Amino acid sequence: MADLKSTFLNVYSVLKSELLHDPAFEFSDDARQWVDRMLDYNVPGGKLNRGLSVIDSYRLLKEGQALNDDEIFLASALGWCIEWLQAYFLVLDDIMDNSHTRRGQPCWYRVPKVGMIAANDGVLLRNHISRILKKHFRGKPYYVDLLDLFNEVEFQTASGQMIDLITTLQGEKDLSKYTLTLHRRIVQYKTAYYSFYLPVACALLMAGENLDNHVDVKNILVEMGTYFQVQDDYLDCFGDPQTVGKIGTDIEDFKCSWLVVKALELSNEQQKKVLYDNYGKPDAENVAKVKALYNELNLQGVFEKYESGSYEKLVTSIEAHPSKAVQAVLKSFLAKIYKRQK
What we know:
The protein has helices at 2-20, 29-42, 49-61, 69-96, 117-137, 143-167, 180-206, 215-238, 241-244, 258-266, 269-278, 284-296, 299-319, 324-337; strands spanning 101-102, 105-106. It is an all-alpha fold. Helix 3 crosses helix 7 (180-206). The longest helix has 28 residues, at 69-96. The chain is globular. GO terms for molecular function: (2E,6E)-farnesyl diphosphate synthase activity; dimethylallyltranstransferase activity; metal ion binding.
């Protein structure tokens, strides 16, 4: 895996160099330095799970055949396109959410002299994906399908972000809107498509598959993405900040979290009042009251039950799939996230 990661990072350097010398634009030294720094700051800094899983998935779909250098490069390039997409979303997300830090450093728009230039940088990041796809995939029979896939997933993610933003509108602090159905819709569109379906769909296209024949795979991955986000919501409140790597603020931020949705479902009138009075307030004492209620309702136990139920359902769906290679891809995804602590 360490070797795979270093190969993957080498491909980043190649793609970055190509973008910095794109013949469609005459770069000044200043412009080239800006984009270089912007890319290094925003693209390769995360865990790279989404990108690496394109290579993993493609390898499993090839059922043990050794991949040649060209296949490794192309699968890595698609993986980086997903990391570029993620960077584009996060740069703009941080501006919308007025966030302070991301991956342990100041958000890009908070870096001195960057400010709102970050909005245009987000647009550039999105355009880099099209440039990468054009340069490396234009001659492939699945080129149009790749473009369609990235366009559709971007649309789904932006629409999920919109539901999330309009739900949490500052003035509308109305908890009664928060239901499991709404939570699921936000998660499905905002996270599951680009984090879970997109890497596997890229690998399937590279392997010569038609995505229309894999709707069941999409459904399983969207389920997995939902399970992943419920874990995230749980860890935001009950995880160890040292392990998780960040201090959770879902309660203060009035997030439509799985925990608050479950709490609303399980509360009596008196307990609901505690939620209505304290959820979405920045003070530590309000947050403590919400957490105390979560403990009173035994949400940790409710989560554990949800986790084992989800896992069993996913395994059953995966094992019903006719292709052993596709099963292997889905099982490898599930193994990475089951009972995770961060």
